[in-house]
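Most newcomers find our protein records easier to grasp once they have seen one. A learned vocabulary of local backbone shapes supplies the integers on the structure line. An example says more than a description, so a record of this kind follows:
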Amino acid sequence: MEALTVTGAVFAGIGALLFVAGILITRANRRFARGAARAPGHITGVRWRAIGPQGDTTMTGFPELRFTLPDGRVIETVARSGTTLQAMREGQAVTVLYDPADPARAQVGKGAATMVGVAFLAIGGIAVLLGAALIAAGVALEDALPAVIHS
């Protein structure tokens, strides 16, 4: 039926956009990680911010990090990526990835930033598959209806 086909196309389109966003996020995080230096550090707190359009926000936690550079300078900054998971605890020891040219640009190693890209890829892929199934069902029903009507 036409409604199934249109709904499937919408799901597939949105899924494709989410999948592409996941690829871009994952590539950006990998690029950052490749050029980043690593240092042991600690989470000193979590700043929670409402992220998203008004009326549809999600509380996202951005860890406050403290780590020491090889030259002895202590850096305190807020991570460049956050998470909705409450797995971050004040005092928790973490590996910090930071930009050597700008140590304030930092994130927790292997954590929220990686999971965001993976989540977009997974949700986008599922939406594309669901959309394709709806399109196939709509086409199959359209093909079957004339045979049913004429019998």
Q: What stands out?
A: DSSP finds two helices and five strands in the chain. The longest helix spans residues 112-149. Residues 2-149 form one domain. The chain has one domain: 2-149.
